[in-house]
Amino acid sequence: MFGDDILAQLVLALGAAMALGSAVALVKPPRQPDEADLDRPPVARSLVMIAVGVVAAVWALASLTSG
Description:
Number of domains: 1
Structural class: mainly alpha
Helix content: 55-70%
Strand content: under 5%
Radius of gyration: 15 Å
Largest sheet: none
Shape: elongated
Low-confidence stretches: none
Order of helices and strands: HH
Distance between the termini: 18 Å
Number of helices: 2
């Protein structure tokens, strides 16, 4: 149904979601955070998550396009 490259597709989806979600949280934090939430996400952790997501997405995209 999904083909032989389902793992690469899942890694691409998760990596892209991790990178984009972390970037959006960094650029546009919640307006009214709850008491238990932070005002802004930690910048260093968000940058690491963006980098890991981009690496995973690029690797998966390369795997899908190489054959």
